[in-house]
Amino acid sequence: MREIDTLIQAQWIIPVVPEHEWYEDHTLAIHEGRIIDLLPAREAERKYRAEVSLTLENHALIPGLINAHTHVAMSLFRGLADDLPLMEWLTGHIWPAEGRWVSPDFVHDGTRLAVAEMLRGGTTCFSDMYFFPDETARVAAENHMRACVGMILIDFPTIWAKDADEYLHKGLKLHDDYRNHPLIRTAFAPHAPYTVSDAPLQRVATLAEELDVPIHMHVHETADEISGSLEQHQLRPLRRLERLGLLSPRLQAVHMTQLEDDEITLLAQSGAHVVHCPESNLKLASGFCPAARLIQAGINVALGTDGAASNNDLDMFGEMRSAALLGKAVAGDASALPAATALSMATINGARALGIEAETGSLEIGKAADVVAVDLGGLDSLPLYNPISQLVYSTGRDKVSDVWIAGKHVVKDATLTTLDEKMVRHKAIEWGNKILAADEQQSKQS
Question: How many CA atoms lie within 13 A of 110 on its CB side?
Answer without folding.
Answer: 32
